[in-house]
Amino acid sequence: MIAIYPGSFDPITLGHLDIIERGSKLFDRVVVAVLRNPGKTPLFTVEQRLRQIHTATQHLPQVEVDSFDGLTVDYANSIGARVLIRGLRVLSDFEKELQMAHINKTLSTEIETVFLATSTEYGFLSSSIVKEIARFNGSIDHLVSPHVASEIYKCYNNPSTQP
Questions:
Q1: Fewest Cβ atoms closer than 10 Å to its Cβ: which of 49, 108, 155, 161?
Q2: Which DSSP state fits 119?
Q3: Cα dihedral sign for 42, 45, 46, 48?
Q4: Tell me, what DSSP letter sits at residue 82?
Q5: Distance CA 126, CA 99 (A)
Q6: Do 152 and 52 form a contact (C-beta atoms < 8 A)?
Q7: What's the pTM?
Q8: What kind and span of H or E run contains 101?
Q9: Of residues 61, 60, 58, 77, the one with CA closest to residue 6
């Protein structure tokens, strides 16, 4: 069975990787799908995020990386995926994600959403928090993979690349 784990992944964190690794044990194939969202101004381009995710997941042979525009359920249907993987950290995540799962079900009755509770050590972690810490010269080495940390540090040490 094919599952997708959609998101912006700007940047991919160790919490995301935890969900990807655990999801890869549950499904035959997991596609980490980067949403091209014109409403957001990301730190990294879609291509950079795809490369970061690919590097971080290269030890997982059943994990693929892709990007898409539009509705997640349309993308899922286009690749034959029947499951959306979503990570839950706190109660507010559940409220938002449950609403999205219900909406997605009205758009495609063939798609199921599977929620994975984030591992305790990543319950506080978000891409926004990583960027905020880095912006103020804090260490993010314990929050993201080394190659991602390096790229983030470069962004915030070079004023011409800051968002």
A1: 161
A2: P
A3: negative
A4: -
A5: 20
A6: no
A7: 0.91
A8: helix 91-107
A9: 77
Cβ contact 35:7 at 8 Å: yes
In this predicted model, what pLDDT tens digit does every residue of 88-133 receive, in sequence order? 988 888 899 999 999 999 999 999 999 999 999 998 999 999 999 9
Mean pLDDT of 53-82: 97
Look-up of token digits 């909406």 = 103
Distance CA 52, CA 54 (A): 6
Q: Which residues, at least 6 apart from 124, have a Cβ–Cβ distance to it below 8 Å?
A: 89
Catalytic residue annotation: 16, 40, 89, 127
Using alpha carbons, list the distances in angstroms from residue 141 to 27, 31, 129, 131, 151: 29, 26, 13, 12, 11
Ramachandran category for residue 80: left, alpha or beta (phi over 0 → left; psi -120 to 50 → alpha): left
